[in-house]
User: What shape does this take?
Amino acid sequence: MTDTRWNGESCLARRITAIVSDDGRFPAYWARDLVGTRRNAVEITYGGSTFYLDDEDGSGWAKVTSGGSPARAQRSLTVVPGSIEPRPSAEIETTARVFAALHRSAEDTVTRVIDLYEQWVKAGPPPLGVSVSRWWDARLVELHDAIQPPQPAPARCCGKPPGVICVHDVTPPADQTTEK
Assistant: This one.
């Protein structure tokens, strides 16, 4: 857990989101144009009081993790009671996105393998006269391709077979000519 401070003394602080409320105590309240919007904020409990700092740009969290000194400016927020929600850390959000992508990939792979299994059941055993070893080799290649699909070959510019030189291989694009 991160050490958080206010005026150099230990305090409780957590990253949250909250809906901005108007603050009638200040005629020139800096966040008046943001009233009703949800913002990233830091909730601070210190000396028996709870208050909020704007953290949309990370400055609120930077203040409480760098000692909470009055020398570092802050933007206080007034929030709508009951609108406070915890904010997950960036690491948790990144991890969740990675796991979601891996889950989708695994689901796709399992679906391909199940489809292949159903295709094999429908096809039945190898026909008479076909080598069982060659038949199994073909099934294993199909299974491999279902688990790890082959990468598409790079597109050829002219459709000529590999090893044949085409005009695009020897002629530079118009914007890369050496003449001045």
Remarks:
- The longest helix spans residues 90-123.
- The beta strands are 5-6, 9-10, 12-19, 38-46, 49-54, 76-77, 85-86.
- The radius of gyration is 31 Å.
